[in-house]
């Protein structure tokens, strides 16, 4: 290791070192509590009873599949909306900076604020229902708040996460030289062919990064779920809080759910990135 590399690691150590230490402490604490240590309501000893209790709970499977659905759909839709916008903003035009800033505005709005604004907008006597009744589209207000399918949560996730995906994809798309796409165009490649065989493979890393980060954030989200999510089913984060507040062994059981949530985020995001890579390779070969 040369001096420059060693110096780079030393400069990263104050910030990156703290992050690694905190992550290690949090994961270690959760693992220890899930197997009986740091038990605040009894003796601390190794046991699998908390895992057995959680895995036998029917609420866990519902919360798992619900969180997995929300995270997957939110990640895919966010990237799907961000890609055309990134391609549109690739070539500078008058007002492009304003449009780009406007599209990134949701990043400045806190998720909890956005959730309450959304609920207020679609509530039974909210603005949207008043418009529908005034236009004669419906005879009476319709219930859209806290729908059982989590559509409201997905809308909020896409609204909040799409600008982040746009940030990643815009930089990746703009890094592709026009000479490459122009050469493909001269060889007879249409717009779709250029997108599938040139732009998608060259922006794969940014696409995977956007999918992974959005998936992890949506899987563990709490604010959107508790304000706009369905009442009949809980997400994994909601289940953690409910167990911690209502069970005598709440800390240990919620730590078990936390481990499952981390595994879901890790394995799910890795599979999503792998599947995306294989689909893009398959499309490029066609």
UniProtKB/TrEMBL annotation:
Pfam families registered for this protein in UniProt: BPD_transp_1
Residues annotated as domain ABC transmembrane type-1: 64-272
Cross-referenced InterPro entries: MetI-like (IPR000515), MetI-like_sf (IPR035906)
Membrane topology qualifier: Multi-pass membrane protein
Compartments where located: Cell membrane
Keywords linked to the UniProt accession: Cell membrane, Membrane, Transmembrane, Transmembrane helix, Transport
A single cellular component GO annotation: plasma membrane
Alphabetized PROSITE patterns for the sequence: ABC_TM1
Main location group: membrane
Matches recorded under SUPFAM superfamilies: MetI-like
Gene3D superfamilies xref list: MetI-like
GO terms classed as biological process: transmembrane transport
Transmembrane segments: 7-32, 63-86, 107-128, 209-233, 253-276
Record has Plastid as a keyword: no
Source species, domain of life: Bacteria
Similarity remark: Belongs to the binding-protein-dependent transport system permease family. CysTW subfamily.
Protein name (database record): Spermidine/putrescine transport system permease protein PotB
Species this protein is from: Marinomonas spartinae
Lineage: Bacteria, Pseudomonadati, Pseudomonadota, Gammaproteobacteria, Oceanospirillales
Gene assigned in the entry: potB_2
């Amino acid at each position: 290791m040369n001096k420059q590399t060693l110096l780079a690691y030393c400069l990263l150590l104050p910030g990156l070192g703290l992050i690694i230490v905190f992550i290690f402490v949090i994961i270690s604490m959760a693992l220890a509590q899930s197997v009986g240590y740091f038990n605040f309501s009894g003796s601390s000893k190794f046991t699998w009873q908390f895992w057995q209790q959680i895995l036998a709970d029917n609420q866990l499977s519902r919360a798992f599949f619900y969180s997995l659905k929300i995270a997957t759909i939110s990640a895919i839709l966010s990237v799907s909306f961000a890609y055309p916008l990134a391609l549109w903003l690739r070539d500078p035009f008058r007002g492009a900076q304003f449009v780009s800033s406007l599209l990134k505005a949701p990043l400045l709005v806190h998720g909890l604020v956005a959730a309450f604004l959304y609920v207020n907008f679609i509530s039974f006597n909210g603005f949207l229902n008043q418009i529908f009744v005034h236009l004669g589209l419906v005879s009476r207000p319709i219930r859209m708040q806290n729908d059982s399918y989590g559509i409201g949560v997905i809308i909020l996730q896409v609204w909040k996460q799409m600008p982040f995906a746009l940030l990643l994809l815009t930089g990746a798309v703009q890094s592709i030289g026009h000479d490459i796409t122009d050469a493909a165009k001269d060889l007879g490649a249409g717009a779709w062919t250029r997108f599938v065989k040139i732009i998608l493979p060259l922006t794969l890393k940014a696409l995977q990064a956007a999918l992974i980060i959005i998936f992890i954030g949506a899987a563990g989200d709490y604010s959107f779920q508790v304000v706009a999510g369905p009442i009949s089913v809980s997400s994994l984060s909601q289940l953690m809080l409910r167990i911690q507040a209502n069970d005598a062994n709440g800390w240990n059981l919620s730590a078990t759910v936390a481990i499952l949530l981390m595994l879901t985020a890790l394995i799910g995001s890795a599979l999503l990135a792998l599947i995306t890579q294989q689909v893009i390779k398959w499309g490029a070969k066609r």
